[in-house]
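fold-stage: in
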Amino acid sequence: MELRGRSILGTFIHAPALGEVAVLREALVEIDGHGVVAAMHARSALSWRDAVDDAAASGRLWRPDGILLPGFVDLHVHAPQYRQLGQALDLPLQDWLQRYTFPLEARYSDLGHAAPIYDALVGDLLAGGTTTAVYHGTIHTPATRLLAEICVARRQRALVGRVAMDHPELCPPSYRDPDAAAALDGTRALIAAVRALPGNDGLVRPLVTPRFVPACTDALLAGLGALARDEGCAVQTHCSESDWAHRHVLDRFGRSDAQVLDGFGLLTPGTVLAHGNFLSDGDMALLAGCGAGIAHCALSNAYFAGAVFPLRAALARGVRVGLGTDIAGGPSASMFEAARAAVASSRMLETGVEPALPADRRGRPGSRIGIGEAFHLATAGGADLLGLPVGRFAPGQAFDAMLIDPAAPGGTVRLWGGESDPDLLATLLYGASRANIVSVWTGGCPADRRVG
């Protein structure tokens, strides 16, 4: 259903700030002709009755069956890896890349190979409630442009980057940019192509995307930093993901990932750094100072990081954080699962996991987050890092949302009536699955969630 120009009367749940969850029962949300929230009326507001009556009289009123949540913001998706979801997770990161991922990504020179996978991925993410995704493509400009085209066609808000990687010691000959100049030319072409896409009204934006420091020569890192500055383009990359990657950068530069990226001009407001598991206090201060942030990928960290990201410590130091699935290092495309994993990993960090140690020496006290905080990170927190007006139900915010039907056939959540506000949200986030998501909108327009 098209919602532009309509008013919705129902239950809305959002987490506009960290530690704040609002359950708005029988609220009225008015959406303007551009798909932006024009006004909100709580049931207790003096304006509520007149606004409801006016919307009903004009034929604009809609009362959905279900509960409305903001669309999820997935800060870290490797689009070409969707085909290998769940595979070879027993390998160390560097072996996984060389034996599985790089050979797979090399196949995206063929648009016939790329098209059905990218189309399925975007449709599946939308069907799971992900209305905004931050994508790593491949080194192939045409295929990465195709991904952006599919996002526009299906109406998924997205940031899309052509991966740049030219270091001959890490990247195989069959899958790397021949040199820094070629990588920069390809990135520059992708930026121009995305901005010129027919029908792209700002829904999809380009990103400068060094894969990670070990995969790039100094010349490429410097060139990408200059390109991001000159084009006014945001940046995404990996940072201190695993022991191997973190140590590789320290050995090469004598500085941390964050310091190296900053030195090349790649830490900017809105820079998305995936993982960040081994950030020092100084690194966190650096990120907080420049407005860069972390895509916390709790599920994939369990397989490849060798450590738990100190989420609570990063938030306390003012670092912007959102959540990511990290397809396919993370074996689930669901942001519900990403939120659950963020909570679980924070509990493990707080209490520890080595049973041979005494309880008081086993973990890091004060590390846990709750499901409401994870919900904020999966929605408004990720949106704030990207500078996007989504993730909340508030005037001036684009209406990116999903409708959850707890009684949907095949659904996996049950409401028994009388749930408190916190219990209602927790039940939805822990229990809901794709079958419970009956509608998804971006900017008030229905998103195309068809599969196949």
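fold-stage: in (second)
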Amino acid sequence: MDNNKLYVKNLTTGSMFTKIITFALPLAVIGILQQLFNAADVAVVGQFVGRDAMAAVGANSSIINLVVNLFVGISIGSNVVIANAVGKQDKKRAQDAAKTSILIALSGGVFVTLFGELLAPSIVTAMKVPSEIYPMALLYLRIYFAGMPVILLYNFEAAIFRGLSDSRTPLIVLTLSGVLNVCLNFVFVYYMKMGVDGVAIATVVSNLSSSVLLLMKLLGKNSPIDIRAGVISRKVIRKILVLGIPAGIQSGIFSVANIIIQAAINSLGGTVMAASSAAYNLEIFVYYILNSFAQTCTTFVGQNYGAGKIDRCRRALLTCILIDYAVTGTVVALILIFGNQILGLFNPDAEVISIGYIRLVYIFMSYIFTLPEAVIASYLNGYGKTLPPAALSVIGICATRLVWIFYVFPRHRSFDVIMMSYPISMFVTVLLMIGALIVIRPGVRVNRRKTL
């Protein structure tokens, strides 16, 4: 056996359709299970504590997603570097990148915890959370920030496994921790009579379990790479960050814009906040399905670019978009049919259900444009072209929504007007992303492979 060879599932040969489906679906389930941590928090406090507690948890969704998505985006740098190493069968490079990724995750988590705890009161105040909800929202955010090292560690570990062509191991681990999270929610809130602190602690503990299990898997004898044999070097750190920071900015842009939108929603009162929170926990499930094919495109392109199979990279782009539309469209149709009943599981209030359904309609309308935008951006990421998608996302998503919220919404203060910002901004962004694809043409201009 060649000790320098990477014995992992190869995405550079075989049926692309089958491999995309089998790789993407576990990623979709992983995203859904991650969101279930927060959805379970919202549902449990909504049923057993009250609407104010539900609004307090929901008010933090945007800021939490901003931080997590920023580092999930940075982890794309790890994914791309490792996938490229797999395509080239460069085991040493993969080991170095994996070990370095663990360091970045833990260092970033400690940094976020320290500054998050310091800035938490200012953050909740800036979110314009009503005074009666403020103490609970602050408590939930503080506990969540305390758990950031293990939360970020899991996400970087998952990126390592994606680069190694393994999307199932993170799924199995997250399933176990997801069940633990739900059980702890009921124990802390229903039996121990805790409030938002109970659901926050449950989320942190479940993330701790998932990160430890994945780390044990990476350190085990059956791991395809030995991260202990890897070397943490400035060169690898720089490459991961050069690729990952723009991708992190791109991921964070959605959250930055959503924080601004959430502040506008908060200004409409507790009922609208609760309705928006309930709908968000449905729409984000669909987004994770949509985005799973984008993540798959990154790994496919990263490996095939490393192997020099540029034609297969281009076919991956088109295949991911077509399958994504078919799968995501089916799920959207089902949720719209049963939307009122599902929203009622979060809160039985008729007004909350009605407003929540309005949000679902607008968001799903925007997904028509979000889907190709996400896959094209991920296609470019796979080639190491992470800066153009990030820059265009700032222009198309953040700038458009800022203009809408600060200039249009004050003149027409309604929930519908706020929601219109989503499809409009995504339409602008997908046009920009298609233009970038035409101009950059990575699959055409690559004449010589470069090591990522």
